[in-house]
Amino acid sequence: MKFLSRMKRSVGSILIVENNLTEQMLIKTAFEAIGVQDKIYAVNDGDEAIAFLKGEGQYSDRNQFRFPTFLLTDLNMEKVNGFELLLYLKRSRMIIIPTIVFSLSCDPEDIGQAYLCGANAFHTKPANMEGLRLLLKSISDYWSQVQMPEIDEKGNLKHSAGGGKERIRHPVTMKPF
Asked: Could you tell me which of 97, 94, 68, 99 has the C-alpha nearest to residue 157?
């Protein structure tokens, strides 16, 4: 099963941002167990994730390190933590990537802060492999059905030849609160 390729993208890839190597391996194994065939990359912290997203240093070869179409991040990491990574993604308004916080925390403060920083969802890591498989299957099923815009190899929005037909017929107007 292609996880994110069904989201109108030709090649899907997942970036796991997790400082615990055992947890990286467990997440990869769980994705494989539920039939996800997309390329899965893992980095150890937000700093490495930003380099990956920018295609810098060891990640400069986009044939080898495809821009991710989905990102799972932990919160508690050295150098650049999950909150700082979320803020980077939010401030880089050109980058479009579904971003899920995947943390041991279930603290309401962490959950609220993650959403304020731009998380698309927040999940507490399950305590066992079966729970992990079930949760990742649920996440995979959901994101496989979501309509997403086409992006280029740097995560920037690709503009279609259609010119935003719906927007022309139904312009979006924002009313002040």
From this structure: 94
Could you tell me the two tokens for 101? Answer: 């916080």
Number of domains forming the structure of the chain: 1
Domain annotation covers residue 172: no
Q: What is the CATH number of the domain that holds 144?
A: 3.40.50.2300
Q: How far apart are CA 34 and CA 137, in angstroms?
A: 6
Banded pLDDT at 162 (limits 50, 70, 90): low
Q: Which domain holds residue 21?
A: 13-158
pLDDT (tens digit, 9 = 90+) per residue, 106-115? 999 999 999 9
Say if strands 13-17 and 39-43 run parallel, antiparallel, or are unpaired.
parallel
Which residue intervals of 55-120 are DSSP H helices? 82-91, 108-116
DSSP lists the bridge partners of residue 157 as 151
Per residue in 14-53, pLDDT (tens digit) is: 999 999 999 999 999 999 999 998 999 999 999 999 999 9
Report if residue 121 sits inside a domain: yes
Within a domain: 87: yes
